[in-house]
Design brief:
- It is built from one helix and five strands.
- A hairpin with a 6-residue loop joins β1 and β2.
- The longest helix has 14 residues.
- By secondary structure, it is an alpha+beta fold.
- It is elongated, with a radius of gyration of 16 Å.
- A three-stranded antiparallel β-sheet has the order 2-1-5, with helices on one face.
C-alpha cells in the first residue's frame, strides 16, 4: 500500500474566527497572538456597547488587514489547525 508523502511532522496554528451579523461564514484571522485578540474581542462583546467602535487588525494570513465595527461582531472563537 502506498504511503502518503510527508515533508515532516504536522504543525499546529491557531486562528481567531470572527462571526459577523448577517454573514454565514466567519472571518478567519491569523495573528501573532491569537489568545490576546480573542480576549480583546470577547471583552468587546461582554461590554455590549451600543456605540460602534472601529477595530483594526494586521494579520498574517490571506487577509492582511481588517477593520470591523464592534457592533457587528456576534461571536468569536479560537480554532486549531494542523498543517505541514
Amino acid at each position: 500500500m502506498p504511503q502518503p508523502f510527508s515533508s515532516g511532522p504536522m504543525k499546529k496554528r491557531t486562528s481567531v474566527l470572527v462571526f459577523l451579523k448577517g454573514t454565514t461564514a466567519p472571518l478567519v484571522l491569523y495573528v501573532d497572538s491569537p489568545i490576546d485578540v480573542y480576549e480583546e474581542l470577547a471583552q468587546i462583546l461582554k461590554q455590549n456597547s451600543p456605540t460602534p467602535r472601529l477595530i483594526e487588525k494586521n494579520t498574517n494570513g490571506p487577509i492582511r488587514k481588517v477593520c470591523i465595527l464592534s457592533t457587528q461582531i456576534c461571536a468569536v472563537a479560537l480554532q486549531d489547525e494542523q498543517y505541514l
